[in-house]
Design a protein that fits this description.
Helix 2 packs across helix 4, helix 3 crosses helix 4 and helix 5 packs parallel to helix 7. 45% of the residues lie in helices and 18% in strands. It folds into 4 domains: 81 residues, no CATH class; 45 residues; 115 residues, 2-Layer Sandwich (Nucleotidyltransferase, domain 5), CATH 3.30.420; 126 residues. By secondary structure, the protein is of the alpha+beta class. A hairpin with a 4-residue loop joins strand 9 and strand 10. It has 17 helices and 12 strands. The strands form 4 sheets. Strands 10-9-8-11-12 form a 5-stranded mixed beta sheet, with helices on both faces. It has a 3-stranded antiparallel beta sheet with strand order 5-6-7, with helices on one face. The protein has a two-stranded antiparallel ribbon with strand order 1-2. The two termini are 52 Å apart.
Length: 411
Amino acid sequence: MDGQFSEAKAAAVGRVCVPRFSSATHGARCLRRSEGARHHPCTTLKKNICGGCNQVHWGWYDRRTRRVRDLSSGDTHIYLEIEVRRVQCKNCGHVKRERLDFLADNPFYTKRFAYYVGRRCRQATIKDVAQELKLDWDSVKTLEMQYMRAQLTRVGIPGPKAIGIDEISIRKGHTYRIVVSDLIRRRPIWFGGADRKEASMALFYDWLGEKKTRGIRLAVMDMWKPFYNVTTARAPQAAILYDKFHIMSHLGDALDEVRKSEYRRLSGQDRSYIKGQKYTLLSRRENLTLKGRQALKKVLAANKRLNTAYLLRESFGQLWDYESEGWARRFFENWRASLKWQRLQPYEKFAEMIDRHWDGIAAYCKPENKVSLGFVEGLNNKIRVIQRRAYGLRDEEYLRLKVLTCMLPRL
């Protein structure tokens, strides 16, 4: 009567009574049953999966209770007490912990808690997240890396049609890594190499595979020769397009050379107009403040050669507006002819460089090659923000994951 009353009371408050497990003599495991339930067959052993090789086992080697942290409720931390078993795997030849899919790679946290930590680390630093969640710094980093690997596993290896190739510096001393982006999906797809030489560039095509390499129809890059050589050899069907922003950067360097030569040539009051106006000249007019526009007007009025160089640089950007290669070539020849008698030696060298790489510039005139050329530079800025926020990253694998997942949706 007392047992029936306790069960009814437990059901009334939303609890479920379960039979107790106990260890019998000689290590046997049995289930306490009521007298009327002895005619039922014995329960079968639980299926356990080896955490090393995924081999299925019936039974276990030993077991223990472990506390695992789960998602918090408000400001209250929640821990789960679960039974974790070990199996003696004949396939591995060792005693291994069973695989539990709801646990993270760090078995003291659930997978959904690891994903929450990974989502927080997209907006905050590891140190800030560790302080907020009362975790160790290394634990936060491990959980975030599992989250980022899960993101990459979900998207898989793409079959890009248009790629952007660029290099980034990961530390001082000319240490570079190559970043390849999918310009249609607008996300980075590969980060690697030991430098920016041909052997490192070939690693990308080895990773992509021959079948998907044949699907590339456009490759956007700067005028770095190893990138061009490897791409033409491994993907000969792809059109080569040189990045507009790198070309305009070379033209900005030529303008700065003119500014320096004029500063050395002049003296006194004429020199004072040029001093400290480097970034005023290199910036686009629409990006300048009112004070910057007034300073630019003053500099261009004081020096005729700088005025000519500035106008030539501003007009060169029209080259990418043409839809016919013939008209684009005519514009370039007219622009090049306007350099005659101007004594702008850096501009003449720039024009010779454009003439040597004309095929990669004129390719933008074709309608099928009209892709966004600013994504690669925007990605480089995003990578620099990641590096600056962490005050530099020594773990290259962590940097690789951060770069490859910075444009992916959340899990």
